[in-house]
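Sample intake sheet
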Amino acid sequence: MQERVTDTASSKADLDPHWNWGRQLPSWGTMGVDFESRVEFGRLRRYRLARARQALESSNLGALLLFDVNNIRYVSATKIGEWERDKLARFALLARGMEPIVWDFGSAAVHHKLYAPWLLPEHCKAGLVGLRGTVPPSFGLMKHHAEEIASILREAKVDKMPLGVDIVEPPMMFELQKAGLSIEDGQQTMLEAREIKNVDEIALLNYAAAMVDGVYHQIFEELRPGVRENDIVANANRYLYEHGSDDVEAINAISGERCNPHPHNFTDRLIRPGDQAFFDILQSYMGYRTCYYRTFNVGRATGAQRDAYKQCREWLDKAIELIKPGVSTDKVASVWPAAQDFGFPNELAAFGLQFGHGLGLALHERPIISRVVSLDHPMEIKTGMVFALETYCPAKDGFSAARIEEEIVVTDKGGRVISLFPAEELPIANAY
């Protein structure tokens, strides 16, 4: 098999995921400079591909066929825009002993030959399987690519081993099977690869969180009677894109009587004096995501609202105290209240309210921490994981609620919070 023409050097230092935890995580600028070691994208590419190869070699799979855009980016360091996220328009193949192959959307394949020299030029291919069925399977594109993939796997001598697929249109899976391939779940293999972040991934996640610090300062200043939830969302979007975000995935803006139960959206509701309001900023910088809630009151707060915030913070702090390598996720979930204890009929109805989830190129990576899953199916917390912990407490007034979330890097000594806008006590915006 041919080797990559560039970006092939790898060393133990490249693959070491850890910081010098004795120092504060740096808050670098976004420019490349010659006088500081900042994010090294070559090292990032090598680390991610090595992790994917390692996970593949540890599995029973011969290759991974990837349609999930996060997985494609992880193994190939290619991305063509957020519009592709729900199209299943691109795909990549990582086989044992071979360099990644990317089938891209039309002219993007030619672009990668020019500007992605870490990929072999002949591995940058144009391809199309059907754009979620809008090109009928009967036209034959899926059959063509399934047979092409089978041929490549025969060349790599892994065609007798299962092919791991992350997400796929059913007709494409059928064509792969008709081509003689045995299909198994490849998403778990990729999630295993992605769960431990290296220094560059942590730096990008830290910078993304710093952008949200700035958004919350802006929201704190803007939050006053007469402003609408969607005004806050619009201004937050502008701030994030002006500061380098490549995708504002969603912003929840929830106020007043909409706080309980949590609707996970925003509207044109007018902010009023005394409202409790909480926000979630979901965006990415260089692909790396944030999920970062903060709760405010407008002008003043009642005793019930303050009590809800205090309880929400206590539940969160108890979880943060447990974060260290070797702790299992059931221990974390066990310090959170049962669903019935805060007004829900069962754990599925309360899912996502007392919650932890990995952050990386996707909003939800490993580990998932929830009473729905973790009590009976715990996972080990490991150094180099990055995840968010979020709690929710409805107020006794029946409509207010508090929601707080912190992003945490797991160090060899414990968890280090990277979401830094103050949240120890309930912030009162524009206090009267």
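Comment: The first strand starts at residue 63 and ends at 66. Residues 312 and 393 are 5 Å apart (CA to CA).
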